[in-house]
Design brief:
Blueprint: E1 5-18, E2 21-37, H1 50-71, E3 78-85, H2 91-95, H3 100-109, E4 118-123, E5 128-136, E6 147-153, E7 161-169
Parallel strand pairs: 3-4
Antiparallel strand pairs: 1-2, 2-7, 3-5, 3-7, 5-6
Helix pairs in contact: 1-3
């Protein structure tokens, strides 16, 4: 099963300084958004949303590969995911596109990752602004990598669509200094620390 794609949008942000301090390494954030047909939009309540779950495998692979390429020459260190159901759909229709099936293909595209992938979903129309959460791909408790990328979806989702998004970053926030586990202290065993 695959989802019919209307379009894919790519957002790239490079941050070179913060608070008048130049970064030793640029912070690159990339979001890839696929606007896909929502099979359930405008229809009566459906208990089984598994066709979205299964279709998210090929969709996720496609957009995650685009995201990993857009990150070059940097490696992906943080990730997040998001979904926006158009107004004829339900928030749960977007959630069905972001399950572990989708998460696993994101991990595959970026060379693995042990941490749970932060996410956000909602229902909205064109012009929606969305903050996509980011966290370290191997340890959720690495506080320096708690971040977000804000994107505005100007042309969607249309009423019968879902915007399915993956988001990547190459490092933590610039000038992080509020403590917690540092990236070089990750034990890599539990996805948390």
């Amino acid at each position: 099963m695959s989802m019919r794609i209307r379009k894919i949008s790519t957002f790239v942000e490079d941050i070179y300084s913060e608070a008048d301090r130049e970064a030793e390494q640029v912070l690159r954030k990339v979001a890839i958004c696929a606007f896909v047909e929502n099979e359930f939009a405008g229809k009566p309540y459906a208990e089984d949303l598994s066709i979205h779950v299964e279709a998210s495998r090929s969709l996720g692979s496609r957009i995650a590969d685009l995201g990993a390429k857009a990150m070059a020459p940097f490696d992906v260190v943080s990730y997040g995911k998001a979904g926006v159901a158009g107004v004829n759909g339900e928030q749960e229709h977007a959630v069905a596109c972001l399950t572990t099936v989708y998460g696993n293909v994101l991990r595959d595209a970026v060379g693995g990752g042990k941490a749970w992938i932060s996410s956000v979903t909602k229902r909205a129309g064109p012009g929606v602004m969305l903050d996509i959460p980011l966290a370290h791909k191997n340890a959720l408790y690495v506080r320096s990598h708690y971040d977000a990328m804000t994107v505005t979806l100007h042309d969607g989702p249309l009423p019968n669509e879902i915007a399915v998004i993956c988001c990547f970053a190459n490092r933590g926030r610039l000038n992080d200094r509020v403590g917690g586990i540092h990236a070089d202290e990750i034990n890599g065993e539990d996805g948390l620390t």
